[in-house]
Amino acid sequence: MVLVSRSAEELGAVTDSIRADGGEAIALAADLTGEDWLRDLDGVAPEVDLLVNNAASFAPYGPLEEVSEADIRGVLEVCAVASLRLSRHLMGGMKARGFGRIVSVGSVAASYGAGGQVAYATAKAALAGMTRTLAVEGGRCGVTANLIELGLVETERATSEIDPVIRERLVGNTAIGRAGTPEEVARVISFLCSEESGYITGAVIPVSGGLGLALYPEQFPEGGSPTA
User: What is the pLDDT of residue 90?
Assistant: First the structure.
């Protein structure tokens, strides 16, 4: 397993945790918005059959007319272009070996929109087109491509960067009534990367606890049953 992130310190901690559990992991600190690091990837992992596109970037909250050109480009580069570039780099090898799994991590913001985060919603929406096209191009060669769209997940970034009022509203509009956990997301990704998922491709799968299913969540009492 190769873990890629800008933060060498965080990578080290995750890598140590995987190794402590008996797994194998290599940490590769890199800026995904460039191409030079791909040579380093080839050096440590010349054959990659499982790819999880999980990079994310956010612009400061605000309406589109207040978002800077630099912030728009930064979000699109990290969330969309980097995933496309890395998929392109690895797709040929997967086809040649007759097996590959590409799983991209998106957001329900792509399907519903996200006020104040138009660059993020746009970038995540692009992953759907990429996923479906990769599914078509790779399907006859044993390569599948799928996209999961996340709701609110209790990550460090979500805790530190999402306004508490927005968090409360998101949870209130989630059918299950809570945020998801990274472990719940990881289990879905693990299945989509397995041989057992070979007949699933081009799918956009919500992993969101039912976020957005209720138009008026406040009509339901705490117990979860509709009032008469």
Answer: 97
